[in-house]
Amino acid sequence: MTLAGAATTPIRAPRLRRAWRARGRMTAGDRRLALAFAAPAIILVGVLMYYPMIGTFIESLYSVSFINPHPRFVGFANYARILADPVFAEIVRNSLIWTIGVVALQNGFGFAVALLLNHNLPGQGLMRSLVLLPWVLPGVVAAILWRFMYDPQLGLLNSFLISLGLTQTGIAWLANTATALPAAILAAVWKGFPFSTVVYLAGLQSVDREQIEAATIDGAGPWRRLTAVVLPSMRAVIATNLLITTILTFNYFDMIWVLTRGGPEDATHIFPTRIYELGFGQFRFGEAAVYGVFSILVLAGFVAAFLVVQRRQGETG
Amino acid sequence: MKETKPGRDGGVVLPLAGMALGATLAAGLLLGATAARAEDVTLQFWDNQQTESGLSQYQKEAVKRFEAENPGIKVDVTTVPYPEYQQRLLTAVQGGNAPDVSTVDQIWQAAFAEAGAIVPLGDRAKSAGMTESQFFKGAWDSANYKGQLWGIPFNVDVWFFAYTNDALFHAAGVDPASVTTWEGLSAAAPKLTDAAKGKYAIGLFAHKGEDTVVVMDSFIYSNGGSVLDANGKCALDQKPAVDALRYMASLKPYAPRGINNAASGDMRELFLNGSLAMELWPALEQPTLQKTHLDWDFVTGFAPQGKTPVGTYGGWNLVIYKQSKHQDAAWKFIHFLTRPDVNGDVVDLIPANVEAAKTFLQQHRKHPEAIMRHLDNARARPLSPRYLEVSDIEVKLAQDVFSGQDPQAAAKTACAAIDQLASP
To answer: Quick one: pLDDT at residue A24?
Structure first.
């Protein structure tokens, strides 16, 4: 089933109500049996997901590092210290720019490519396979590739710009605080856009052809057909894709870590890279946990938004 | 009248035989159990690999020798690539799955000791006749923390040697020996640089990495400066350190662009393809260069006229973990690995045992005497459980300086941050 298909078959409210009514008719034995069947899944989710999250929150309330293995309860002191640290503000700013930048460009570019691939062009099968290539590359490999691309001395990007006469010498894209984050965003968009393309292509192929033909007969041009027919039909797919890519991008670690390790001067640090640096680079587990809690809260917000969108799709679909 | 118990006549032998049999079985079981226990001692040894020297294979061969000398002790060697080593070791220690013995970076040792993850080795070393004089002083110092010995130096190296592409020097009419002084280097750098042709004098780097710190420290040490003073206070804003930072910044026009995201590895690529006249690396770079067709040599760092270049120590110590159930066997293994006749066969840097190092350098490295002098003259980085935070601040300092900030102001900011740490 395509993602678009999945998005259009939610659990409807009447079905839920029927399920609740059915619950009322269950005997105590049935309920125990149902609980027994559900218990492994509940325990698994609890142990694998919620226990680490709760553990992270508890750890954030303690002064704990590798060199202080006996945790000391400090309440929200770690939070106060981190909120007062200018690095935190920079990481929030970077994370916002990074997430919005990557999601917007990845989805915009991904949709444009999906529109192209949706036409019956010669070599379409090959093109679809080639477009997928960046996505199937391991993240670290893609990051190393882009590190070479951006190399100030040997990089392809600089050679290209020099050959066009746009610059005399190679630009150190990743060494400059002004250009490092945009450069990382571009690399991440290249890596991630095939995901959006695949999802949008599936969505485009599920758009009702008759509606498009009707719009064409009514005299609508390509732009009008896109905005009046295709995009409204794909609203659910677009919303779902935006939310998924937002969550994935916010958590994206390896691209930035390989390109810059969060540098120069913290100019590309985002939540995951900062957590790694504090925890494994400096053995400061308590402070890493605070960043982890903030990450969980942001992601919980995204998940809540995702659920709201899904419910609305269910109500309108 | 003697009481005769039933069956006594024929039964004298049987109980005795039974007892003998029982005793034999018990002894057999005991011996078997003892032998089984002895054979069950399997040490977990972790090390990391920084070069392409086939270290893992060498260590496995040495382990066979150790096992032959110490029946009943087996050793499992795990060799982890350097970039992953810190995380894997830390996760294992925190998770209660630490190996019995491992190497730890000199700069981690104080933290491991402070955390109670490793055990002191002073008494064992004393009993085994191990003394400071058998090892490089800087390496021995790095194994001591709060008056106790926590590790045995395993291997060492020194940042940095300036490797020279002599073909480029001769083409520019510059004597490679002239760059050992700051004045000579300043004079040579413009002659060795032609940015339009992609040729540069020196490979500087300031990415987020420890190689940034050790090179900067060496500039500072060579000008008589320090990172911390005798009282543990930051000394980076003192004149010798600030002058060294200013000098480093003056070399920026003669280095490839992108210093603040460049690593020593990036500069190596440029050096190997003939774009760079000098790269800064420890002695472990020599095996790589020996495989090339470059006309290469090296000088032992840079210092102002009249001063001697001072390098920054790097290297690894062997430690025993508190979680280890086989600490006696682990100590035997450490003693074995640091013996003069073994140490050179099991390291990919330079053996920390001085006697082993002399033999190793004679066999494997160019200009062994120069390397020995540079090792003897090198200084360790600050021995602090919070060194990694100090290091992070130093990286930022280097990036500030190469970004064009005033070195005095940048150093003042760095010192404020370092002195804020509770126990730098």
So the answer is: 58
Tens-digit pLDDT profile for residues A9-38: 444 555 655 665 555 567 888 888 888 999
More confident residue, B20 or A52: A52
Nearest Cα residue to B143 out of B387, B390, B380, B323: B380
pLDDT at position B21: 47
Nearest chain B residue to A279, by CA:
B87
In this structure, the answer to whether residues B307 and B341 fall within a common structural domain is no
The 10s digit of each residue's pLDDT in B186-229 is 999 999 999 989 999 999 999 999 999 999 999 999 999 999 99
Q: What is the pLDDT of residue A293?
A: 95
Q: Is any Cβ of chain B less than 8 angstroms from the Cβ of A182?
A: no
Instruction: Verify whether the Cβ–Cβ distance B260 to A172 is below 8 Å.
Output: yes
Spatial distance between the Cα atoms of B304 and A157, rounded to a whole number of angstroms: 40
Distance, CA of B71 to chain centre: 30
Domain contains B296:
yes
Domain holding B354, by residue range, is: 39-156+314-377
Q: How far is CA B52 from the centre of its chain?
A: 16
In a domain, B338, yes or no: yes
Q: What is the pLDDT of residues A141-187, one digit of tens each?
A: 999 999 999 999 889 999 999 999 998 888 999 999 999 999 999 99
Residue A2 lies in a domain: no
Out of B87, B260, B403, closest to residue A280 by CB = B87
Name the minimum distance, in Å, from the CA of B156 to any CA of chain A. 22
Instruction: Say if the Cβ atoms of B256 and A152 lie within 8 Å.
Output: yes
Instruction: Kindly report the nearest CA distance between residue A2 and chain B, in angstroms.
Output: 38
> Are B385 and A69 a contacting pair at CB < 8 A?
no
A40 within some domain: no
Q: Does A155 touch chain B (CB under 8 A)?
A: no
Domain total of chain B? 2
Return left, alpha or beta for B299; rule: phi > 0 is left, psi -120 to 50 is alpha, else beta: beta
Which residue in A66, A149, A181 has the most chain B C-beta atoms within 10 A of its own C-beta, making it the best mutation to test that interface? A66
CA dihedral defined by A231, A233, A239, A245, rounded to 10 degrees? Answer: -70
Interface test with chain B among A65, A67, A268, by most B beta carbons within 10 Å: A67
Residue B25 placed within a domain: no
pLDDT digits (tens, 9 = 90+) for A37-83: 999 998 988 888 888 888 889 989 988 888 777 788 999 999 999 99
- Chain B: closest CA distance from residue A180 (Å): 9
Count how many pairs of residues, chain A against chain B, have C-beta atoms within 8 Å: 87
> Which residues, other chains included, contact B221 with Cβ-Cβ below 8 Å and sequence gap of 6+?
B310, B311, B312, B379
Residues of B in contact with A67 (CB under 8 A): 111, 114-115, 385-386
**Are residues B106 and B145 located together in one domain of the fold?**
yes
Q: Do B207 and A69 count as a contact with CB atoms less than 8 A apart?
A: no
DSSP code per residue over B64-117: HHHHHHSTTEEEEEEEEEHHHHHHHHHHHHHTT---SEEEEEHHHHHHHHHTT-
Q: Which residues of B366-394 are buried (b: 16+ CB within 10 A; e: fewer)?
A: ebbebbbebbebbbbbbbbbbbbbbbbbb
Instruction: Give the CATH number of the domain where residue B342 resides.
Output: 3.40.190.10
In a domain, A4, yes or no: no
Domains in chain A, number: 1
A282 interfacial to chain B (CB closer than 8 Å): yes
Q: ipTM of the assembly?
A: 0.78
Name the closest residue on chain A to residue B194, using Cα atoms. A169
Distances in Å between the alpha carbon of A226 and those of A144, A166, B368? 38, 36, 73
pTM, rounded to two decimals: 0.83
